[in-house]
Amino acid sequence: MERLDSATFWYLPVWSLWRREIVRFLRQRSRVIGALGTPIVFWVLIGSGLGNSFRYQFAANGPAAEMNYLEYSFPGMMALMVLFTAVFSMISVIEDRREGFMQAVLAAPVARSAIVVGKILGSTTLAVGQGLLFLALAPAAGISLGIGSIVAALLVLIVLGIGLSGLGFVIAWSMDSTQGFHAIMNLVLVPMWMLSGALFPPTGALRWMAWLMMINPLTYGVTALRQALYLRVDLAGGSAESAVAISMAFAVAMVLLAARIVAKKG
């Protein structure tokens, strides 16, 4: 079989798989509604329920200030939207393998890394797009956004989307059924989000739980996202630079791990 030139060998499958993910998602309206609606419902119900019962104090470049729960939980709910979209998009990996599509792609004269990058970029695009839609609700939470905050949030969403999409790919690649994937989602990924600082800050948590939050990579994604929304405010929630660096390292690690398992088990 004649091999493709180096550019086509890599970029064409990336583009094709990326486009396939977007088209598949848009044709399934239930996925659009579920991925976008669930975090909004969670945010409105939980945020409104706790309401003024929760007060998160932080330093606003001067005297201590505070925010209510609706405002505090907003970055965490945005992360949940990215998590749902990115991870559930990877159900297509299981479906593609079951239907024989993935076997055909693996047999084609294309780079295995291109397969991974195409799937992850498609999932990330969907996750970031819905994250930006949710970002439009920031004024309802009392968050004033400037151009800098929007750009910073976009960049963090991209890094977060790549990392979570890579994690979803790694999990889905070893699964034979969507039921097993949902079980892992409920057992591992939802608690991972709950222990990311999305629902409550690590300060005040039990020591063992605070340690779990500290080693949870999603904690740093939520921290970076929260700080991106408040560029000129000291939230006293950890170094934004460290949070971004750890999030980027997690994203790179997940992409490399996904590429490795495809090359090894494909």
Descriptive account of the structure:
The chain is mainly alpha-helical and 266 residues long. The chain has one domain. It is 75% helix and 3% strand. It has helices at residues 6-27, 29-50, 69-72, 74-89, 91-99, 101-107, 112-135, 147-173, 178-198, 207-215, 217-229, 240-265; strands at residues 56-59, 64-67. It has a two-stranded antiparallel sheet. Helix 2 runs antiparallel to helix 4 (74-89), helix 4 crosses helix 11 (217-229) and helix 8 (147-173) runs parallel beside helix 12 (240-265). The mean pLDDT is 81.
* Secondary-structure element string: HHEEHHHHHHHHHH
- Output the strand order for the largest sheet: 1-2
Overall residue-averaged pLDDT value: 81
In total, the number of strands is 2
Structural class: mainly alpha
Record keyword descriptors for this entry:
single chain, mainly alpha, 12 helices, 2 strands
Summarize the structure.
The protein has 266 residues and is mostly helical. It has helices at 6-27, 29-50, 69-72, 74-89, 91-99, 101-107, 112-135, 147-173, 178-198, 207-215, 217-229, 240-265, and strands at residues 56-59, 64-67.
